[in-house]
Amino acid sequence: MKPARLACLMLFVAAVPTSANKVYVTNEKSNTISVIDSDTLSVVQTIKAGRRPRGVLTSPDGKLLYVCASDDDGVQVFDTATMKLQRTLLSGPDPEQFALNAAGNLLYISNEDSSEVTIVDVEKNQIMARVPVGVEPEGMALSPDGAVLVNTSETTNMAHFIDARTFKPIGNVLVDKRPRYAIFSRDGSQLWVSSEVGGSVAVIDPHSQKILKKIRFDVPGLTSEEIQPVGIRLTADGKTAFVALGPANRVAVVDAQTFEVRKYLLVGQRVWHLALTPDEKYLFTANGNSNDVSVIDVAGLRVIKSFPVGAAPLGIAVSPH
Amino acid sequence: MRRVAPIVFSVFCAFAAPAQAGGPPPSDGDWPCVQRRAGAISRAAVWSGPETPASRPDNEDAEYLLARKLASRRTPMAEAESLIDQFAQEAGADKDERLTRVFDKALELINAERDKVIAGILRYARGQKILAAKVREEAEKISDAQENQEPLAPDDLEKAHPELKWDKRIFDDRARALTAVCETPVLLEKRAFAIAQALQRRL
Q1: Which of A29, A46, A106, B174 pairs as cysteine with A311 (C-beta 3.0–4.6 A)?
Q2: Pairing of strands A116-121, A292-297
C-alpha cells in the first residue's frame, strides 16, 4: 500500500468514532432527559419528559427509550432517532423502576404506591397481569433466561421471586433494610440486591434462594449512615461489580468473585444509578444532589470527567449500539 | 353529630396533614423537613485529597481569608474558582498542604453555618408545634361554643374570632417558608462538595 493511501486510511479510521453510544439520564426534578454522547462525554440534547421521570431503559435494538414518568402514572416511549415522544403506555400508579424482556415486548413495572408489579404488553399497550408484592416495590430484574422476575420492596425488606410466565409468586428472600435495586449476573447464577438503609449488598443464589454473601462497605472517615447502596452494575465477565453508595458520594469497585471491595471512587453527590457502555470502557453515574454525571474509566478505575445535566438526575441507561 | 364550622374543620385538616408542613420522620419528632436530617458534613464525603497536615504553620492568614470567601455562598463559584487559581499559583512548594488547609477551614466554616441553620429549623419546628396546639385549642373552644347553634359562615367566624384567624395565618406563612428553609442544609452540602472539588483539581 502506498504511504499516502495508508495515511489517508489511518486518518479515516481515526476520524470514525468506534464506540459512540447514547447515554440517557432522567432528571427527576427538572422533568427532562439529558442525552449524552459517550465519545465526546458531553450532553448533546435535553428532552422534556413527563413529571418526575425515574426508571429508564432502552429496547434491545436501541430504537426505543422507555421512561417511567412517576407522577404522570405512565411509561413514556421515545423514538431514539428523533427523541420524539411516540406514546405513553399504561403502567399502574407511580411507576418507579422496571425491566424489559429480551424480546422487548413485555415491561415489568414496580408500582411504588399500590404495592404491585404491573406487566404490560408493550405493543398492545395492555396490562397482562398485576402481581401483589411487598410494600413500596422498587427494584425490578428479569433473569437472563426470562423465567424469573424479581422485585424488591423497600418497606417489607424482601426480594420477591415471581414466575415470569405464570406471574405467580414463587419465593421471598429477606434482605437488609430498604432494598432498592436488583440485577442478575450475565449467566444468571447470581442476583445482587442493594439495601439502602441496611448499607449492604446481598448476593443471592436465585435457584436455592439463599444468600451467598452480604457485602458491606466501609469508607474511611464516613459514618455507616452515610453509606447507602443503590445502583449496581456487573461486568459481562462476572469479575467486577460497581455499587453506587448514595450520600457517600462514591462508587465501590467490588471483586465479584471474592466479594472484596477493591476501591472507592469519589464521584458526585448522592450517586443513584449507574450505566456501563456495551464495550465496558466507561461507567456513567447519575449524581442526584450535585446535578451532574461522572464518568469512570473502567480499565483505569478512575473518574475522568463530571459534567452538569438537569436537576436531580436519578436513572441512567446506555443505548446498546 | 356535632357540626363543625368550615374554618374550624380546615384548621383541623391543616394540622392533621403533617406532610404539607414537611412531615417529621418518625425517628426525629421535631424535625419538620422532608429532607432527612443528617449530621455534619464528613470530610471524607467530599474530599479524596491529602489528610489534614499534622503541623501548623506560623501564619495561616491567607488560608483563612480564602476559606472564608469560599465558604460564603455570596461568592459565586466562578469567582471562587479564580480565587483558588490565584492562591494555587502563589502557594509555592507547599501548595498541596496549603490547599488542604484551605479545604479544612472552609469545611469547618460551612459545617458551623449548617449547624446554626439546623438549630434554627428545630427552634422553628418547636414554635410551630406550640402554635399548632394553640390554634387547635382555640378551634375546639369555638366548636364547643357553637354546639347546638347554626354554624357561622367562614367570613363571619373570622370576624368573630380574629385571634384564630391571625394565628392560623402565621402558621400557614411559616409552613410555606419551610420549603426554602429546609433546602438550606442541602445547599450547604452542595457548596462544600463544589469547593472541595475545585480545590482538589488544583492539587
Answers
A1: A29
A2: unpaired
Residue corresponding to grid cell 489528610: B51
A3 domain residue, yes or no: no
* Cell matching residue B179: 420549603
Cβ of B45 within 8 Å of Cβ of A248? The answer is yes
In a domain, A6, yes or no: no
B111: containing domain: 6-21+30-36+59-200
Q: How many domains does chain A have?
A: 1
- Render each residue's pLDDT in chain A as its tens digit; 321 residues: 455 555 544 544 444 445 589 999 999 999 999 999 999 999 999 999 999 999 999 999 999 999 999 999 999 999 999 999 999 999 999 999 999 999 999 999 999 889 999 999 999 999 999 999 989 999 999 999 999 999 999 999 999 999 999 999 999 999 999 999 999 999 999 999 999 999 999 999 999 999 999 999 999 889 888 899 999 999 999 999 999 999 999 999 999 999 999 999 999 999 999 999 999 999 999 999 999 999 999 999 999 999 999 999 999 999 998
Domain of residue A30 covers 20-318
Question: Residue A299: which CATH number?
Answer: 2.130.10.10
A with B: how many residue pairs have Cβ under 8 Å apart? 36
Using the Cβ of B194 and the Cβ atoms of chain A, whether some distance falls under 8 Å is answered with yes
Cα distance between residue A241 and residue A255, in whole Å: 6
Whether B90 is in a domain gets the answer yes
Q: Which of A221, A225, A269 sits opposite B190 (nearest CB)?
A: A269
With respect to residue A13, please indicate whether it lies within any of the assigned structural domains.
no
Q: Which of A226, A251, A265 to mutate to test the interface with B (most CBs of B within 10 A)?
A: A226
Interface mutation vs chain A, best among B37, B42, B52, most A CBs within 10 Å? B42
Residue of A nearest to B37 (CA): A225
Shortest distance between the Cα of B34 and any Cα of chain A, in A, equals 15
- A113-120 long-range contacts (CB < 8 A, ≥24 apart) are A115/A153, A116/A92, A117/A149, A117/A151, A117/A162, A118/A90, A118/A91, A118/A92, A119/A167, A120/A75, A120/A89, A120/A90, A120/A91
Residues 174 through 203 of chain A touching chain B, CB cutoff 8 Å: none
Taking contacts as CB-CB distances below 8 angstroms, the residues of chain B near A221 are: 42-45
Residue B52 counted as domain residue = no
Residue of A nearest to B187 (CA): A289
DSSP A37-74: ETTTTEEEEEEE-SSSEEEEEE-TTSSEEEEEEGGGTE
Could you say which DSSP state residue B93 is in? G
Could you tell me the sign of the dihedral formed by the alpha carbons of B137, B141, B142, B143, in that order? positive
Which of A183, A188, A159 shows the shortest CA–CA distance to A171?
A159
Q: Which residues of A touch B43 (CB under 8 A)?
A: 221
Total number of domains in chain B: 1
The ipTM (two decimal places) reads 0.72
Q: Cβ separation of B45 and A249 shorter than 8 Å?
A: yes
